[in-house]
Design a protein that fits this description.
This protein has 464 residues and is of the alpha/beta class. It has three domains: 251 residues, Metallo-beta-lactamase, Chain A (4-Layer Sandwich), CATH 3.60.15; 89 residues, 3-Layer(aba) Sandwich (Oxidized Rhodanese, domain 1); 91 residues, Oxidized Rhodanese, domain 1 (3-Layer(aba) Sandwich). Helices cover 27% and strands 20% of the residues. The strands form four sheets. It has a six-stranded mixed β-sheet with strand order 1-2-3-4-5-6, covered by helices on one side. Strands 7-8-9-10-11-12 form a six-stranded mixed β-sheet. Strands 17-21-20-18-19 form a five-stranded parallel β-sheet. The longest helix is centred in the middle third of the chain and has 15 residues. The relative contact order is 0.09.
């Protein structure tokens, strides 16, 4: 048996290529939209991808399963569990039910229905039939993570389907109780690692065993359903607003992407006109470069490990443009197009050389020691998450998480300077650019964020 784990850092997402080297066949589980990576890996091992499947209808990225099956001619096998409203709405080769089996040469893949995170969720037990008669691993998707379990509140909080949160938590508890009866040696190959919004405390360790999770994963150690429900629903991070769109796309069927669309370079003379009509222009340079000089009316989303998350939150229009550092434009544009395609943003309207958009405006930086005596005369805007805010914040601060800022600008006083603050300075840099684009004229960024504030020995205020 051949196994290769793929990990997409921008999504903290894992997918798996599992092949029988005797039959030269393989299956891919939970493919993301960059399907070429699976095709190339299979070819390098002399394997043909004959089956494609996924654990559930994903909410955090556009599935690549349909694209991969189209490209390879593989059989697309998807869950047929859950009520009708939770089922896939596009044609596929096989509808999977609890107890079904997929055979890949000597490899047996047994289907378990493990609802809770979503009603249709499946887990796949993997048995190497050439060497054993018991499964070696379970591909658990968003059911069991290392150190955590999949959140059951997304249908209600992201898709706005009322009344599903507590019911999902109760079902998840039952699924865990049933799953815990499997052998302790069973390896856990989850669908996400640390950094995913699909759980609240996912470990960065890539895999585990059921025995280890039963001993150390909090979810297996809640003895009553009521205790588990309270614990799993508390402290979950805010689901990005684009999750609703991802869920819908993956349910009705992602478009066949084909080659990535790489945008064309536009004449710098067009940029002022786009800014004047409020077109969305995203400067992808590092925050420090943007703060030192940028075109007013743009927003800054640095192209780093958080780019996909914040682009998903903030790109809410089909027409948008990028500003890219000319020195790395050729390679960077392909990477940007790939990253955006992962969340269903398939077409970039064009891009500008950063040299045509720099040196025109700055975002002042203020240190904690400089800010402390000015707290009574400025608005401190904390753009961290709800959980972070509740752990402590600057005295008198206003709280609006970054993802919601564009929709809640009316809550920010415009009659005094605004100092934007997050944990370390990254999110607040994005927020400062949003405020500037909205017309706020006195905006500064707290250098080093809350971390620098506390390191300076300055006081915090607890949530009421």
């Amino acid at each position: 048996m051949f196994v290769k784990r793929f990990f997409e850092p921008s999504l903290a997402q894992a997918s798996y290529l599992i092949g029988c080297q005797q039959a030269d066949e393989a299956i891919v589980i939970d493919a993301n939209r960059d399907v070429e990576q699976y095709i190339e890996a299979a070819a390098q091992e002399g394997l043909r991808i004959t089956h494609v499947t996924e654990t559930h209808i994903h909410a955090d990225y556009v599935s690549g399963s349909r694209e991969l099956a189209h490209r390879t001619g593989a059989s697309l096998c998807l869950s047929d569990e859950g009520d009708r409203e939770w089922k896939y709405q596009f044609e596929h080769a096989r509808k999977l039910k609890h107890g079904d089996r997929i055979s890949i040469g000597n490899i047996r893949i047994d289907v378990l229905h493990t609802p809770g995170h979503t009603p249709e969720h499946l887990t796949f037990l993997i048995t190497d039939g050439a060497a054993a008669d018991k499964p070696i691993a379970a591909v658990t998707g968003d059911f069991v993570f290392v150190g955590d379990v999949g959140r059951p509140d997304l249908l209600e909080r992201a898709a706005n389907i009322k009344g599903t949160m507590e019911a999902g938590a109760r079902v998840l508890f039952q699924s865990l109780q049933a799953f815990a009866k499997h052998e302790d040696w069973l390896q856990i190959w989850p669908g996400h690692g640390a950094g995913s919004a699909c759980g609240k405390g996912i470990s960065a360790i890539p895999s585990s065993t059921l025995g280890y999770e039963k001993r150390f994963n909090w979810a297996f150690n809640k003895k009553s359903e009521a205790e588990f429900v309270d614990a799993v629903l508390s402290g979950q991070p805010e689901p990005p607003t684009y999750f609703t769109k991802m869920k819908r796309i993956n349910k009705v069927g992602p478009a066949i992407l084909g080659d990535l669309h790489v945008p064309e370079k536009l004449d710098a003379a067009r940029l002022p006109e786009l800014i004047a009509r409020k077109a969305l222009v995203i400067d992808t340079r590092p925050a420090a470069d943007y703060a030192a000089g940028h075109m007013p009316g743009t927003i800054n989303i640095p192209f780093n490990s958080s780019f996909v998350t914040w682009a998903g939150w903030l790109v809410n229009t089909e027409e948008f443009y990028l500003i890219v550092d000319a020195a790395t434009a050729t390679a960077r544009l392909s990477e940007l197009a790939r990253s955006l395609a992962l969340i269903g943003i398939d077409r970039i309207s064009g891009y500008f050389d950063a040299r045509s958009a720099s040196g025109l405006a700055t975002i002042p930086q203020i240190t904690p020691k400089e800010l402390a005596p000015k707290l009574a005369t400025v608005t401190v805007l904390d753009v961290r998450s709800e959980n972070e805010w509740n752990e402590g914040h600057l005295p008198g601060a206003t709280h609006v998480p970054l993802g919601y800022l564009s929709d809640r600008l009316a809550e920010i006083p415009s009659d005094r300077p605004v100092v934007v603050q997050c944990q370390s300075g990254g999110r607040s840099s994005i927020a400062a650019s949003i405020l500037e684009r909205a017309g706020f004229t006195e905006v500064a960024n707290l250098t080093g964020g809350l971390g620098a504030w506390t390191a300076s020995g300055l006081p915090l205020e607890e949530a009421a």
